[in-house]
Amino acid sequence: MEPKYLVIDAQEPGVPAAAGCPAAERVIEGAPSNLTWDLERSPDGKVETGVWEVAPGAWHVVKDAWEFMHVVSGHSEITEEGGSETVTLRAGSTFVMRPGFRGVWRVIEPTRKLWVTYG
């Protein structure tokens, strides 16, 4: 019987990573390439989880699903469109983006996070 839980090792995810980057028209500065380790998806495809790491740079974020994230290393900043507050994310930070979030993600130091999306 397969267990009804998932243990995630953010340093050694145990599956191959997929390389990616934000769409070119969203990039503001740098070359924020990323690696994504997709670890699990619910049978209906609505819930996904994994590990993600991104290189320094900045881009416009458009989020159409719920995303819970926990930063395990690095330094990033997120500013919501039209907002004046910048949220700093460092190792130990936990953050939720709600559907409809629009803003800028700026990576100061390579950042790695655990994530769960619903949508």
Can you walk through the features of this model?
The chain is mostly beta strands and 119 residues long. Strand 6 and strand 7 form a beta hairpin.
Topology:
Layout: E1 18-20, E2 27-30, E3 34-41, E4 47-54, E5 57-62, E6 66-80, E7 86-90, E8 94-97, E9 102-118
Antiparallel strand pairs: 1-3, 2-5, 3-4, 4-9, 5-9, 6-7, 6-8, 6-9
A few lines on this structure:
The protein is mainly beta.
What profile does the largest beta sheet have? 9 strands, antiparallel
Mean pLDDT equals: 97
Question: How large is the count of helical segments?
Answer: 0
Amount of helix: under 10%
Radius of gyration over C-alpha positions, nearest whole angstrom: 14 Å
Query: Which residues form runs of ≥5 with pLDDT under 50?
Result: none
- Approximate strand percentage: over 45%
Secondary structure class reads: mainly beta
List how many beta strands DSSP finds: 9
Element pattern in H and E: EEEEEEEEE
Distance separating the two termini: 28 Å
What sort of overall outline do the alpha carbons produce when their principal axes are compared?
globular
Keywords:
mainly beta; 119 residues; 9-stranded antiparallel β-sheet
